[in-house]
Amino acid sequence: MHPDANTRRLLYKIAHVYYEEGLSQKQIGLRYGLSRIKVSRMLKQARDLKIVQITFSAGNERTASLEHSIEAAYGLDEAVVVSSVPSADGKTNLNALGAAAAECLVRGIQGDETIAITWGHSILAVVDALPTGNWPDLHIVQTLGGLSQPESKINAGDLARRTAQTLGANVTLLSSPGLVESKSVRDSLMNDPQIKRTLGLAAKANIALVGIGVPNSTSFSLVEVLKEKDIERLTSRGIVGDIGLQFFNEKGMQVPDEIHDCVVGLNLAQYKAIPRVIAVAAGVEKVRAIRSALKGKIINVLVTDEITAGELLRKQ
């Protein structure tokens, strides 16, 4: 039985870093979120499928080359690049990104991790693509309070709940709005024992699944929660992107802004401290934000498409 494209991509990557870069099986396991035994089995599978020969065959040499180049250019643990398929509404690419990110997430699960979940359309695509699992010791936790309407499919609470249901895992939800009117309200909520416990659990997660937003009027997610004056102010301060409403500049550093005093969720330093942060983001309008997140070492795994990958390499 031939492996699917995602499995073949991973087999190629593991073989490449083992035979070409000289990484140990333990190092590979840490890099890709796999056990040492699984790495050993996949190396054997790569040999059996003749992926390991005198030359390497990734199945899609173009995207494999982009992945390797981005990993080298930005010091990433892993880049996953999907083929760009033109579509009028962009859903084809988003579905492909979601499927690739779902595979990237699930293959790293041993069964007792804590996975932190943010919000947005990219994360929705991942959740939609998750396979059914049975990990009763796995824990899914919400990193940010609710931002859109409770019935919205991109709401962080709904995404965390659906992820847990699909994977057969436990879930801890953050019973709070994600953005409040003032610092005093936010401080009061952050001192609530249940909220404090939830965010403490999220900060200690093994894996985080995040999207990358852009503070402008074309961002479907952000325009639901930010006022026009907020977007204008953020832009004027040199802010180029956000993860979980934590806004950062060109260098990937958090910029002081009043909006951070109103967000109930993890801060940027806490995201950066999570061992494996998988970002799902693509589109020429997001290149600047993605590049900045990479430069700031906020993320260490990127799932994107080949057009975005090409732009990231051209505009380092």
From TrEMBL:
GO MF assignments: carbohydrate binding; DNA binding
Report keywords, A-Z: DNA-binding, Transcription, Transcription regulation
Q: Provide the Sugar-binding domain boundaries.
A: 61-313
Cite the InterPro entries for this sequence: NagB/RpiA_transferase-like, SorC_transcr_regulators, Sugar-bd_dom_put, WH-like_DNA-bd_sf
User: Sorted alphabetically, which Pfam families does this protein's record hold?
Assistant: Sugar-bind
The signal peptide here is none
Per the record, the similarity remark reads:
Belongs to the SorC transcriptional regulatory family.
**Protein name as it appears in the record:** Sugar-binding domain-containing protein
Identify the species of origin.
Leptolinea tardivitalis
